[in-house]
Amino acid sequence: MSTAPKPIALPVTAVTCLEDRAHVERTAVLDLEPGVQRLRLGPVSALAVDRTLHAELTADHTATVLDVRIVRDWTPRGPVPSADEDSALRLRVHALEEEQGTLGQRRDRLHARLDLLGRLAADLLREIGEGAGSGESEGPRWARELDRVDRERDTHGEQLRTVEARLADLADELDRTRRAMTLAEEEPAELVGHIELTVESAGAGPAGLRLGHLVPCALWRPAYRAVLDADALTLETDAVVWQRTGEDWSGVRLTLSTARSSLATDPPRLDEDRLTLKDRTAAERRTVDVELREEEIGDLGPATPVVGLPGVDDGGEARVLVSPAPVSVPSDGRAHRVPVSAFTTDAGSEYACAPELSPLVTQVVRFENRSGHALLAGPVDLVRGSGFSGRGTLDFTAPGAAAELAFGSRDDHRVVRETEEFRDSSGFTQRTVVTRTVRLSLSRFSAPGEEDDRVVVLRERIPVSEVSAVEVRLRKEACSPAPDAVDDEGIVRWDLALPPGGHRTVTLVYELSASGKVAGL
């Protein structure tokens, strides 16, 4: 049984992107022959997880998958590009090498010339010695010849030193250029994977192959774009996808899931939880310890965080979103936005302020989720009449549930908050009464031409007691104006109508009354 030398193309046709990985599905049509045969398919990403490989065959005749595995090998480097496609670094190397060769030849000629001048000077000195010994005297000629030889030796020696200095500079520059070209142009060998599929077929004919596997280096997160136009809100749901799997996803069916496939590999840790009972001491019987604490109020409650796997808030249930059209995501590690859904609905808008948290008046828009799927927690690009106005955050919202978005603060409003506290202890009843007064000053700075009143919803809070020994009472007769509503969570609300350039002052007064045995108030 031999393997076909030419691999069969096995493109990616569908991808299910998870929080930190992706499930890739590939399809191909195979031309099978009777008997057992081994096929080579690919190339595929070398990051494919071997133990998740799964292959299925569909054919008119009986065909069975006997074995499927992934094999990896290093592909050699590509050929050197032609002269017409040379880069600037490669052209610079060619120019330096050519100049280096020319200067090397000139250096050899200068060395030969200096050797010849040295032999000529030696012959001239020998002639002078022989002539002086035989009584001949040609002093002027000998002097001229020696001067000419010395001048030529000095000239050629200076040229040789210049050439050698230039050759040293060329060698250093050529070494640096070659290192830069190595780092910039020479690609290392690439690790490529192929699928080896062993099948047994009862007859000849085409068969459909469906192969799937997991691959790391891929993830997605939700993102939104909210456009506010008068009383209508358009919310577009996108998926931001990153992938660096080594192969591009071109025209694939994309499914987005919040399932955590690796969560089952980390079972919960079981620790001992011992409960012990003990009698209260006399001091504990005489006193009641209380303390003030902050507690967040939620309708559904936040999702339980997963330690070590920060991801999407899906409300504790795996959610699946499907892209309505085929998408292409290149393997470049960058963020790519994929449209998922969009809807337009009526939206109610109010100007709200909670001075205890922030002195800003914010435009809050409330709407109903009509996308047909759950809106996962994620960032929102906010767009209104003047264009892009900022970025907010959308919390998890179930289908059909109400959601709200803050479209930024209003620069033409200002809120100042002042607090006072008065403590009184009565010796006869041994009760402590703490009276707190909160004054809020709200101002509106209007542009010329504004005439309509603007309703600002102002919210403050009072403590809520959980023990009978501490009582909280709102003094409505001392509040100015009287609150429009007070809920069970201690949120006091006023709906204030401000005319252009208007100013309102709100006073909130409440009492905390505790018996003498209460400590910590």
Q: How would you explain this protein's 3D organization?
A:
The protein is an alpha+beta fold and 521 residues long. Helix content is 19%, strand content 42%. It folds into 4 domains: 12-75 and 189-215; 88-185, Helix Hairpins, CATH 1.10.287; 218-262 and 278-305 and 312-409, no CATH class; 413-519, no CATH class. It has 3 helices and 27 strands. The strands form 6 sheets. Strands 1, 2, 4, 7, 10, 12 and 13 form a 7-stranded mixed β-sheet that branches. The longest helix is centred in the N-terminal third of the chain and has 47 residues, at 88-134. Mean pLDDT is 86; it is low at 300-309.
**What order do the helices and strands follow?**
EEEEEHHEEEEEHEEEEEEEEEEEEEEEEE
User: Main beta sheet, described?
Assistant: 7 strands, mixed
Structural class: alpha+beta
Low-pLDDT segments, ≥5 res: 300-309
- Give the rounded overall mean pLDDT: 86
Radius of gyration over C-alpha positions, nearest whole angstrom: 43 Å
Q: List the total number of helices.
A: 3
β-strand percent reads: 35-45%
Give the gist of this structure.
The protein folds into 4 domains: 12-75 and 189-215; 88-185, Helix Hairpins, CATH 1.10.287; 218-262 and 278-305 and 312-409, no CATH class; 413-519, no CATH class.
